[in-house]
Amino acid sequence: MPELPEVETVRRTLIELVAGRTIERVTVTLPRIIQRPAEPEQFADMLAGRRIETVERRGKFLRIVLDELVLVSHLRMEGRYGLYKSDEPVEKHTHVIFHFTDGTELRYKDVRQFGTMHIFLPGEEFQYPPLNKLGIEPLDGVFTPESLRSALGRRTTKIKPLLLNQQYIVGLGNIYVDEALFAAGIHPERTADTLKKDEWIRLHTAIVETLGRAVEAGGSSIKSYVNGQGEMGLFQYSLQVYGREQEPCRRCGSVISKSVVGGRGTHVCIQCQPLGKSRSTAARKASSGVLPAVREEGRKGKQTANPVRKHFGNL
Ligand SMILES: [Zn+2]
Predict the structure, then answer these.
(1) Distance 270 CA to ligand 1 centre (A)
(2) Which of 115, 119, 181, 245 allows an S-S link to 258, with CB 3.0 to 4.6 Å?
(3) Does 231 qualify as catalytic in the annotation?
(4) What's the 181 CA to ligand 1 centre distance in angstroms?
(5) Which residues pair with 120 in a beta bridge?
(6) pLDDT tens per residue across span 253-299
C-alpha cells in the first residue's frame, strides 16, 4: 500500500500532468470506486466542465482541487494514475477515465479495485469520512516531539500499531513505521507509556527524516508502486530493516528478524532496538505485587477486592 512518500510523489507528478486541464466528460466502468455521490452518473455530471486547479495531499489521500469541487482519491493497494492521449489503447483494469478538453485523458487503473473516490464542496471534505478523523501531518510544522508525545505518550499499547493508526499521525504505513522505529532504536513492541523523553525526541526525528528522505527518493517501489508517470521510486534501496529479514543489520551486523506485531509483519534488529522494558509502567508495578498502597492496606487488614484496579483503572 502506498504510504505518505509514495502518495506525495504521485501528488507532485499529478500536478505536472493535470493542473490547468479541463474535464470534458468522465467515464466510470467500475461503479464501486465511486463512493460519493452514490451514482457514478452523478459523479460524472458533477465533474464535467471543471478545471483542475491543483493537487494536494492529506495523509495518504490525494485532494484533486477543481473549481468549486474537491475530488478525494485514495489509491489503497494498487491504484495508479496515468496521462494518455485519447487515441491510445485503454489498458486492462482501467476503471475511471477523465477525458480532458485538449484530447488527453487521465486514466485511473486499479488491479485490486480497492481504491476510492469522493466528491465534496471545498472544505466540506474535512467534515465527513474519510478525512474527518485524520491525525497530525508528520511533515507539517505542527508535528513536534511534544505533539507526538501528547498524542501517544499515555497509551499502554504497543508503539507500532499506534504509529500505524491514522487517527494519531497520518501517512505512516508498515514500511516507514519499521524504518522509523529502527532509526530511533525503539522496539516495535514497547508500549508507548514506557518511552522516555529522549526516545520521543529520537522517534520524532526518525519519522521526519525517514519520510523526508523517502519523499526525496520518490518513494519506495515495493510490489507495484510507480508514480503518475510510470517511474519507480528508489527508497527501497535505502531501507534498513523492512524486507531485510535474515540479512545483517547495516548498523551492528546482527541478523534482522521478522515477527508479527499488531497483525503486521514487523522487521527489527534486537541489538539496535532492545525490547527491555516491554510492558507499561503500570503493568510492571501491578505484577510486582509491591505497590506501596496495597502493602499498606494489607497490613491494616482492609484490602479491597481489587486494589490494583482501584489505582490503575485502565489496566
Ligand atoms: Zn543492529
Answers:
(1) 7
(2) 245
(3) no
(4) 12
(5) 70
(6) 999 999 999 999 999 999 999 997 544 444 444 444 433 333 333 33
